[in-house]
Design a protein that fits this description.
The complex is a heterodimer of chains A (281) and B (260). With 281 residues, chain A is mainly alpha-helical. Chain A has 11 helices and no strands. The two termini of chain B are 37 Å apart. The chains are: A mainly alpha (281), B alpha/beta (260).
Chain lengths: 281, 260
Amino acid sequence: MTEELQLARSEDLIEADIRRRGSGAKTVLLQLGALAVFLGVWELLTASGTIPDYLLPRASEVMVALWEDVVDIVRGGPMWTHFYTTLIEILLGFFFASVIGIAIGALLWEFEVVRRALYPYIVAANATPRIAFAPLIVIWFGFDYASKVVMAVLIAVFPVLVNTLAGLAATDRDDLRLMKSLRATRTQLLWRVRIPTALPFIFAGLETAMLFSAVGAVLGEFMAGNAGLGYVTLLAQELFRLDDAFAAIVLLSVQGFVLHRLVVIAGRRVIFWQADSPVSK
Amino acid sequence: MQVTIRDLGKVYSARGGGDVVALQGVDAIIKSGEFVSLVGPSGCGKSTLLDIISGLTPETTGEVVFGDGAEGQAGPRRVGLVFQKPVLLPWRTALENIYLPAQLGKEPPERTESQQLKAKARELLELVALDKFSEKYPWELSGGMQQRVSIARALLLDAEVMCLDEPFASLDEFTREQMHVELLRIWEQQGFTGIFVTHNIFESAFLSSRVLVMTPRPGRVVAEVPIDLPRPRTKDLIGTSGFTENVRRIREAMAEHWAE
């Protein structure tokens, strides 16, 4: 079982545990309370000057900046452009990472020789900090969308690839025996058993890929260009507009959270049999 | 359909030399419609024998012949296989799991035939008393129900020989006893030739017309114990002196040939 799958399962377990421990309303209240305490302490420390404002803006200022950003986004102002630029980058990065990851994973599964020959290099590539390619990527792909999407794909493709490979290899021995006893052809085995078995793995990879794609998109905006929430964060920090920087980071966080959530929800729909099934086989 | 096993042997060549003889010189005739149990301790090759009969594993020597010889190897070999675990696909409902065999193989059934098989799958669900659970997924069913689905699945393509590999070993005692009666009812209704692997002597006595006793190293059939209990059999049979006597004879045959 790969790391990503375990990670996804752990999240499910934690969420289920939280749900078990109390009513939904109480839990939400508790969580909002925690946020209030956090913001309160933040405000106190900054307003009193314990932490100087050139290091950390006041929480209230960040809230105001965030509110202005949201209003601007709704009105379709400049922040809207930044917001949706990053959104498109993340989605494109995720899309290509998914397609490429699943395709390469499936090819490696299918061709054993290729898998044996290339797997160590894939592991090595995954261990390489892709940010080191930043200057080259800008030279190769320019200042526009392409370089950001490429960076996102470079980071997000590996969890999909590795999980696809692991998922296709995860077919249960008993399932194989059953299919053999029923004289299933290779194609039938693939579609009726191997792919459904691989789906939970693949979706675990996709969940991670969405988060990684967001990281890649922001990294890409740090490298070059003049649009996107990552760019706004960078620019605001350079101009010492820390409240604007934090507001943009909050927007990125919300974006990432929602996108990740969408993948989780889609996964639960597709892999309905894993939702609450201690499947005994 | 009669199953004739002639001088059957199976050798697994272990990596780095040292072959393991799983089966040696096994001879047996299982008559059409008979219910026979293969009993023996772990490692006696009973599961291997079943795998060879059901075509999962090739034999090393000897042969397994289906039919009474007069018809030769006529007709498609229809061997149903039930495993120790139900092995149901969790993304398929009970009904879809039973229908699975119809969707596999080199020549999938034609339209009219597949309609018939769908109807057959429903009938089988009724046969195993799960007609109310057709749209349930495996994980929504109890262990006994899951195993009943897997028996129904093995019956979909008109199995004439049914191989069962310790199918009730992971069920609790109470469910297992119910399943015994259930299995005998299905067998009497369907008339297949039953070959049942188990290491449970009581189980073999209750179900079978005949018990083949096997011993390990090398795996061989060392004794044959006919079970002279009337059918149809019910749970009341257990504890009767006749039942105890049959159990004792299986034990004795085992002890005589296997000292460890």
